[in-house]
Amino acid sequence: MALLYQPMMQLSGILVSLLGWVLSCLTTYLPQWKNLNLDLNELEIWTMGLWQACVVQEEGGMQCKDFDSFLALPPELRISRILMVFSNGSGLFGLLLSGFGLDCLKIGERQQGQKKRLLLFGGMLFWISGITAIVPVSWVAHSTVQEFWDENIPDIVPRWDFGEALFVGWLAGFCLILGGSLLNCTICSTEVHPSSVPYTVAEQQDQCQHLETETRP
To answer: Residues of 198-211 as b/e, b for ≥16 C-beta within 10 angstroms?
Structure first.
């Protein structure tokens, strides 16, 4: 059972991590981190992401404009851009390492110690990737809530609200952390090799024969 359970758990971990990495990349480039709905013109919805701002019109579709300067961005968007790119890179590196460490891969079957180390490093990279995806999304959400309930801003001024990319980012971070945890759990589980059983039985038989020869007169 252990021999069948461990590869299935490894495969589940890397598939969940792959899903989280894809969602993390999608979160990085989606322009819907913040949504601004104008009450005066309900036909237009403004959105803001890490790379561009867009306006969605019912008749003209979506029109986007890239940010001119990185330094002109708010601090939460500057740090979020750096963290999300780092999350995508560490997640990709984790996929490569953990992929070569899978038991179902025939490459390096005789080097089980190295394959376990690859799985361990891959799982830790998934943890780092998940954390660095959750932190910027939560930071932008926190700043959006603070600006939404800021009493110094007049009520007539439109307020930014949560965009769809924030929820995708939270799901991505959760999948990455869960996938890394599944991979690391397979390393901690002990495995009994069938080749060791005949040796233990033979050793017990030798000990019994030795005791019988000693007890004979």
So the answer is: eeeeeeeeeeeeee
Helix (H, G, I), strand (E, B) or coil at 155: coil
Strand partners, 161: 35
pTM beyond 0.85, yes or no = no
Instruction: Please spell the DSSP secondary structure of 72-131, one letter per residue.
Output: TS-HHHHHHHHHHHHHHHHHHHHHHHHHHT-TTS-TTTT-HHHHHHHHHHHHHHHHHHHH
The string of pLDDT tens digits covering residues 95-144 is 999 888 887 766 656 666 788 888 899 999 999 999 999 999 999 999 99
Would you call 151 helix, strand, or coil by DSSP? coil
DSSP state for residue 25 in the 8-state scheme: H
Sign of CA pseudo-dihedral 104, 109, 113, 119: negative
Q: What is the pLDDT of residues 199-211, one digit of tens each?
A: 444 444 454 454 3
Q: What angle do the packed helices 164-188 and 75-100 form, to 10 degrees?
A: 30
